[in-house]
Amino acid sequence: MIPALLTAVLGLTLQVPWVQALTCEWGTLKSVKSTTELPFHWTAGREVCRDGQGCQDTLMLIENGPQVLLVINKGCTQRKDQESQVTVHRAGPGLSVVSYTHVCRHNDFCNNVSSTLPLWTMPTTAAPGSVRCPVCFTTEGCKSAPEMTCPVGNTHCYNGVLQLREGNTNSTVRVQGCMPQATCNLLNETREIGHLSVRESCDTNEVQALTCEWGSLETVRNTSELPLQWTNGKEVCGDGQGCQDTLMLIENGPQVFLVLSKGCTQREDQETQVTVHRAGPGLSVISYTRVCRHKDLCNDLSGTLPLWTLPTTAAPGSVRCPVCFTTEGCESAPEMTCPAGHTHCYNGVLQLRGRNINTDLRVQGCMPQATCNLLNETRKIGHLSVRESCGVQALTCEWGSLKTVRDTSELPLQWTAGKEVCGDGQGCQDTLMLIENGPQVLLVLSKGCTQRENQESQVTVHRAGPGLSVVSYTHVCRHNDFCNDLSSTLPLWTLPTTAAPGSVRCPVCFTTEGCESAPEMTCPVGNTHCYNGVLQLRGGNINTDLRVQGCMPQATCNLLNETQEIGHVSVRESCDGKATRTCQRGVMLQLKQNLSREPVQWDTPRKVTCGLDEVCQETLLLIDTGTRSLIVGSKGCSKSKKQNSQTVSIHSRPPGLLIASYAHFCSSNGCNRAQSSSVLLNSLPRSAAPVPGDLHCPSCVQLGHSCSSSENVICPKGTTHCYKGQISLSGGGFSSALAIQGCMVPASSSLLNHTNNIGEFVAVEFPEGENNRIIARAASAPYLAWEVGLGISLAFWYGTTSLLADFISP
């Protein structure tokens, strides 16, 4: 047996033939400038594209009297190549709109427009007319907009809202200015400019797109732990959407099940509503719902207090019932004495469905009558739909997965399996595949619940021996619990007959590692070619890239005889002969005090199989303001050309703000195995306690574009000014803006010392007051939350935000 085959890994799809992915200039900017500041120049970050993607430039200028709105978007794209194109959507004088678009693939950084020169010429002075109009470019209101005399020929005042959407970013700009006619068509019917989609409205009462609190949570807690509180992410809504809160609590004796959903919604506004669907004692259900549009983040429910009061103690009755809240079986549920008046035991399944909520909850407890109506006829609670079942018992299936290489002498093999309670309508499935390769057999097994239709037991010979052979067994059933009861290889395994030896010798290999030392064997007669390929196996808790070498009757990369799917396992084959490597994978974020002195754990339980040209990486970035610190870590695969390197960099050092980083690139399996942030901290110089100076500065580090709260601190001696700005950080599965305030030394104006690449991270810094650089695209809060697996995090008493999560698989 090869132990490496027993490790579950997350892999990337192998591409054959493989083409070097492009690296593009990358960033976004939306800014209002004076016409005297143009032409305008910028620098950009960089982004490594996916296979087949190209590079794009999108630039739009809207001139409005003495001001120009500048919108820039650069980065990777799936769009087809397009030559550089300048379009005049509306000519001046008065309001004018011009754009530049370009898509290319001929080389890295081909989207290299770096100024407004391709589409900007200083406007000629136009004779004044007789009409005066307010002039405004703002995301706020235009009540105090100054007036200007319009150029001759401009006889109407424009008043509208432009909604600009770039990917997941949605912003609105109010525009007032001079136009030659009364129209709501500033962009001359244009709806899309490169990567920028545009919508126009001249309804001055139109509400700006909302930003809502966002996240979801499902948890079972003891009643003694309530009330609970939480923090959450953010989400930018679509046109006309509002913000919603949905919270449901089900009390069951000593436990409470909590379901929470927050985010954008199309539903109409609804005042805060608390509904008691079933009152206790015994099983009780209560909910909180709200929909609002009156301001950003108006769905600000942050705890259970609006609907939770500690239950009063009820007199015990004479009936005892099992008490259970679980997505598994309730066979070993403990019993409790029901409150007086509760004479029946409830036993049902609640199917809860909603945004990011998908749960089948088994419930057992005390009820006052025999009924399957725990929710009192309720079918929908805010964004949560509920279905109840107390009739047909959901199936329980055998469950498990296995990958192992065995000698043929060890077969037939037998196994035992775990069990899994299925959702409504699901059946049980067995998937078994055997690949025989000379003296060895690879066994791949998957068992569990499935949505697929019933299928009688089926044995398929995908490739017959002698030489490499492949056979499979598949079965889907619903006739009883544990009907997927395959427990051995007997239904598809017979001891192979001995074949006469031929004249060809081939290496024989089954491994997730390299096959450099594979032993050779004499192939059976009729097998004249040596197979060398990689099988990518995905599905049913199977995630493996398997190297195979052995004997075949012809030169082909078709070991599985065109098979792409075997039961719950999908299969892809490649014969390029290159090796892959496995790396640890995950993202870590910590935000608290003393991270520059106290190491934090950096374990990543998941692994990923990298692309053929990739190496392993681990990157740490530490920001310490003296009163608070933040550390971001990333482990995974990298397209970096650095094969084996390890660096610690101090970008900004005390007194004042400390910015330091650790980057490690390596090329062996699992080599990015640092277990704590001490790999960075041990290399930092230890300094004496700072001597207080005379300067006072705000101090802050947090996620986002600005500090929502900061504290004034006495700066150390040797600092001379206060820093305020942000760093846009992306790459390695993380993307967010980091807001920073603190004390600075006199020779420093840049925290990163103009560094853009920190290991796998791309960092772009924006000190307040420096506007001559593009803001590299930082994800909005919901994107960050999705990347690191954070929707709702429970806020515990010690006041520390700690986040450690795996990558989301493609």
- Strand percentage lies at over 45%
Q: Strand count, sense and closure of the main sheet?
A: 7 strands, antiparallel
Structural class: mainly beta
On the 0-100 scale, what is the average pLDDT? 80
Structural write-up:
Strands 19-20-17-18-15-16-54 form a seven-stranded antiparallel β-sheet. The chain has two helices and 55 strands. The protein is globular, with a radius of gyration of 32 Å. The longest helix is centred in the last third of the chain and has 8 residues, at 781-788. The chain folds into four domains: 23-201, no CATH class; 211-389, no CATH class; 401-420 and 427-574, no CATH class; 582-805, no CATH class. It has 810 residues and is mostly beta strands.
Describe the SSE topology.
Elements (H helix, E strand, L loop, with lengths): L9 E2 L11 E12 L10 E4 L5 E11 L2 E11 L4 E9 L5 E9 L23 E7 L1 E3 L8 E5 L4 E11 L2 E11 L12 E2 L2 E6 L9 E12 L7 E7 L5 E11 L2 E11 L4 E9 L5 E9 L23 E7 L1 E3 L8 E5 L4 E11 L2 E11 L12 E2 L2 E6 L6 E12 L10 E4 L5 E11 L2 E11 L4 E9 L5 E9 L23 E7 L1 E3 L8 E5 L4 E11 L2 E11 L12 E2 L2 E6 L7 E3 L1 E7 L14 E3 L5 E10 L4 E10 L6 E8 L5 E9 L11 H4 L10 E12 L7 E6 L4 E11 L2 E11 L12 E2 L2 E7 L13 H8 L3 E3 L6 E5 L5
Parallel strand pairs: 1-43
Antiparallel strand pairs: 2-3, 2-5, 4-5, 4-7, 6-7, 8-10, 9-12, 11-12, 11-14, 13-14, 15-16, 15-18, 16-54, 17-18, 17-20, 19-20, 21-23, 22-25, 24-25, 24-27, 26-27, 28-29, 28-31, 30-31, 30-33, 32-33, 34-36, 35-38, 37-38, 37-40, 39-40, 41-43, 42-45, 42-55, 44-45, 44-47, 46-47, 48-49, 48-51, 50-51, ...
